[in-house]
Amino acid sequence: MPVRLVLASASPARRKTLQAAGIEPDVLVSGVDESLVVTERAEDLCLELARLKAQAVVARLRPADDQRTLVLGCDSVLAFDGQILGKPADPADATARWERMRGRSGVLHSGHCLVDVKAGRQAEAVASTVVHFADISDHEIATYVETGEPLAVAGAFTIDGLGGPFVERIEGDPSTVIGLSLPLLRRLLAELDLRITDLWTKVAPGNQSVEPLG
């Protein structure tokens, strides 16, 4: 039976991560109000938000009988200096964060909730990666914030975009920092009796068609 993966996220980086790994997801944004969840632990917050996003999308789906439909919800936060940092509120907030983060390290937590819609089963977990930030200059901070990129991402940084040069190194899975851990996704699929290769697709020459890999 074909397997359909629905990504409950508007993040282009998460979609590109899946596509680079041979998985072509459908995208359906959850619309969950992230401010409704309050907790003191970063791991609990990102997992609860991932769960809410997945469940919101599941409630809107009408899966086909001849297809196995999965929904993947993800959420990321940065634990830094005893605080939980999601997306910055504005440029001033992003600037203040980078002035504190430069030359130091934090832990990026990404919650994942994978739901098998028709079976009513789900698997969930958090992936965590230590991020060591470069000791960047005031000019680099100002220029980076002006691009707008840090305003759109948890922790006010990326490793797969303009912020990449400002991360010295990481300890853990790089895809966790992008917001979707591929090794963790593989383990969650196994909990639902699936292999990640079941989701692989092959694009024909010229992008004319997409067919499931055997």
TrEMBL record:
Keywords carried by this UniProt record: Cytoplasm, Hydrolase, Nucleotide metabolism
Tree of life domain: Bacteria
EC number of this enzyme: 3.6.1.9
Transmembrane segments: none
Function: Nucleoside triphosphate pyrophosphatase. May have a dual role in cell division arrest and in preventing the incorporation of modified nucleotides into cellular nucleic acids.
Classification via PANTHER family: BIFUNCTIONAL DTTP/UTP PYROPHOSPHATASE/METHYLTRANSFERASE PROTEIN-RELATED, BIFUNCTIONAL DTTP_UTP PYROPHOSPHATASE_METHYLTRANSFERASE PROTEIN-RELATED
Protein name, entry field: Nucleoside triphosphate pyrophosphatase
Record organism: Micromonospora gifhornensis
